[in-house]
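Q: What does the assembled structure look like for these inputs?
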Amino acid sequence: MTAPIPFERPVFVTRPVLPPLGDYVALLETVWQSHALTNMGPMHQMLELAIGDRVGAGETALWNNGTSALMGAIRALELRGKVVVTPFTFPATVHAIALLGLEPVFADIDDESLTIDPVKIEEVIVDGVSGIMGTHVYGRFCATERIAEVASSSGLKVIYDGAHSFSRRPPIFPDDPTAIGDITILSFHATKLFHSVEGGATVTMDPELNRRLKLLRNFGIVSESEVELVGMNGKMSEVHAAMGVAMLGMIEGEIAQREAVASAYAAGLEGIEGVRIVAGNGDSMQYFVIRIDPVAFGSTRDVLLDTLRSMNVVARKYFSPLCSDMDPYSALPSAQNLPVARTAAREVLALPFYGGMSADDAHRIVEIIEWHHGGGRL
Ligand code: T4K
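A:
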């Protein structure tokens, strides 16, 4: 096989979707006229309602990003001491625990779903654990029913990091009372299929928790004369909310375009020994992730990544290194024995995946993977 032609410009793992500039400017004009720039103004209210409609369950509150939504969730549930958490996630999940002075306790993941394993959660629950945090990795759901059983038998609260979960067609959550846990957070960062440049949300089935979450994102202020809680500034500005409103109309088209890219990838990758598709095939259209079995494929993920990068394909190792191997956490006893997560972190690779790509781009990336599999190196 002859060497494939490198891409002329870098093809990144994602490229933010943008609404027509005119649509955004028209919304900004109303912001300019009102002089309401933040503090839950009209754009914020409009977006919060629209997101709640699309979520379709429980009550939704907007936040300025997914990380402060995670911190708000921990505070709203009054978690203390230790929190059981997955090591296979973006650092924000674990940092939210540590930033609030709590200690993460890592539990290994399930090899198939790459989400926190309920059996491993049970094994690491010790005195002082007050909650469980799982990540719906690449938008694939944790074993929420089983986790609910573990939590209720140990008196623990459950938070789900659903940063990747909004990137799918409704219903966003399965029709299952355990799906949201006590609180689920969403991220609307620029790299997400739906975004408000920076942004996030919390979802809960409990109206009182939603009331507390809304207080927590605004300094705990109930009224000019009453501050009920130690809160923060987690509010989304009107300029960001306007972007979210402009983006609402873009979601379906972007999902459809990504479906075409995913089909092109799937058709091409099928049959390459040692390559398995783990995300991008329906659950969520946020990431297209493959897993490389180094023996069957004949090369490690890292060497393949070098080849892809040499061809201007900027694939990413989401999520490697494991959070448990990062400096702030690597000395924790629970960070030492996570074999399933460690293997996954060595093998996963998020390929470029966004609506602006063509099926031909996906074919060319598959060709590079095939060429590498056949022994090709630059
Ligand atoms: N929990 C989970 C499970 C998460 O994945 C995340 C965030 C969070 C919590 C926290 O939510 P937020 O607080 O962020 O709302 C990116 C995103 O910054 C991060 O939001 C996301 N997860 C994570 C998976 O991906 P990086 O460090 O990979 O970003 P970066 O700058 O390398 O961007 C990736 C590629 O995207 C670039 O190579 C080019 C492209 N890009 C990026 C940006 C920001 C653009 O083309 N334009 C842009 O403006 O973290």
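Residues 12-16, 65-67, 89-90, 92-93, 135, 161, 163, 187, 189-191, 200, 314, 318 surround T4K (CB under 6 Å).
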